[in-house]
Amino acid sequence: MADDVIDEMKWIAKDRYDDAKVDLLMNELYPGKNMDVPDPWYGPEPGYHDVYEMIDKACEAIVSKYK
């Protein structure tokens, strides 16, 4: 799915797309792995908590990087 998102961004931005300005959220925790953030929609409730924790940790890494 991560590749799909980047492909859509390239299609929308056309010639204004700048690869240097684009990265996937989970690369903040796992550089270069291009991991997806799972979609918990069809799973049990704990899946939502797991995804929230992943996003929260990645966001904290971004905040720490720019403090």
What would you note in describing this structure?
This protein is mainly alpha-helical and 67 residues long. It has one domain (2-66). The chain contains two helices and no strands. The longest helix is centred in the C-terminal third of the chain and has 21 residues, at 46-66.
Gross geometry: flat
Query: Total number of helical segments?
Result: 2
Spans where pLDDT lies below 50 across 5 or more residues: none
Helix vs. strand class: mainly alpha
The count of domains is 1
Compressed to H and E, one letter per element, the order equals HH
Mean residue pLDDT:
93
Question: What helical percentage do the residues reach?
Answer: 40-55%
Q: CA-to-CA gap between the ends? A: 30 Å
Number of strands: 0
Describe the biggest sheet?
none
Tell me what portion of residues adopts beta-strand conformation.
Answer: under 5%
Cα gyration radius (Å): 14 Å
What is this structure's SSE topology?
Elements: H1 2-13, H2 46-66
Task: Give the tags.
mainly alpha; 67 residues; 2 helices
Summarize the structure.
The protein is mostly helical and about 70 residues long. Helix content is about 50%, strand content about 0%.
